[in-house]
Records
---
Amino acid sequence: MRINLLLKITLVALVLLGLSLRSAVSAGGSDEEVFPPKTLEKLKKNYSAKQQKKKNSDAVKGNENSKKSVTKDKDGSAASNNNDDDNLNSDQTNVDRASSTDSVLEDEPLIADLTSIIDKDGIGEVNVVWKLSNDGSSYRTIPGATNQSFTPRQEHVGKTLRVVLTYLDGQGNLETLTSAPTTPVVNVNDKPTGVVRLTGESAEDSALILDISDVYDEDGMGPFNFTWQRTSPNTGWENYTEDDTEVLNLRQEHVSYTYRVRVEYIDGFDNREVIYSNESEAVRNIDDPVLGDVVIMGEEKEGAVLEARTESLSDDDGIASIDVAWERSRDGRNWVSLTGENTKKLNLDQTVVGSQVRVKATLVDRFGVETVLHSQPTRIIENVNNVPVGNVLIRRVSN
């Protein structure tokens, strides 16, 4: 009798194993099993342990052992566990056709609600597998998604989800329940991560360079549009429309301004994203040389008037003031100032005859930088005969 009992138990186990594999294929889709091989092995071990525990009590009950191989259809009628087709059909009817959720959002957790599941034969350890479908018909297992809760991410957007539950009931039957599919996962706008950096020296004649290599958006990124903006201590931010590239070459007009870049793009879901770079330091001025010459106009002889001309002088830094002074030299090397002659015109008199004359111009730019320039010296100032003045008087010499 014990041998017959063991043969019956072995036969039931083999039938259950065949049904389990067929149920797994039926519930899991054509491309993958319902649960991983390790999970199936665990179920079989649990089942074997339960059967061993019951063996002694089954021996006492005798013929009641045959009742352990009877399963129940969903309508409560009994069916032999040896009927593979019936068991497969039972698995198919365990698909919940009701809508699981109204909408599924990216990054919003979902939970498989098992509270309404009732099995009069008892419910063993429940194994959960989340599945994913691109077309709503063919589902594949999501690796690692074996918890009761699941949070859809960006890679799940636009796809439908469903849950497949498997467990062994108290009679050793493998039960499979499949939820209704969700609606397609709705994208939630992901803000861009990373920073937009401005690099380069913030000084005239240098360049500021935009670095967007650190920017990332899970929703995808379209073409970038750049707008350089600037501000000064007396103004707010304003668009600087001269440049719309990643490099801003700094010239005199950029000096004293602080710069940043407004970066805009459209992501893969038509969301407009705007990022701002860090602010540069105020662009430092680099002293620009004074261009042009101081020129002396006029006849170089006694009695004439010389004039200093500074109109050709220019400075990219701007000109705040120009002061003029006249100098003379007897040897062309040593120069002395003509006292009181600080205007642009010089009347040539006897004091400068035989000397050369030049102009010393002191230019101060808008940044307070002083530049001294000298004109070319004149020729030696010619003497012009001066007609004597006065009368010759004859006086008597007497005591």
---
Amino acid sequence: MTYLNFNPQVHWPFSGSVTQDIHPSLLLKARSSDTEVRVLREVASYGKQIGVLSDLLLALVASVQHKKFDADGEHALEQLREMVEDIKRIKAQQNPLPEDADAARALIVALKERFPELKTT
């Protein structure tokens, strides 16, 4: 017997593959979205907040390392360590801006040495 895979796909208007950014504010409503936006702009992004919490958690685990976790806890801890290392690796691959004015000046000097056409007359 011959197997026939007949699976037509019909895309009506607005029914096809759609790519859309889902902003967190659309899904989870905070008590005051204005407050949430201010915190994100003035204090720290979600990524920065999670990074601080991850660093704190790893420091706490290191301070009580003599205590053993169950298999699930060990697995979660290993996942967290891997995620933190992956994030560090990705950040290291980026070209961040210098931390201070002296580092910026040193970078400018290095760029002018490497690319002489950047030197102004």
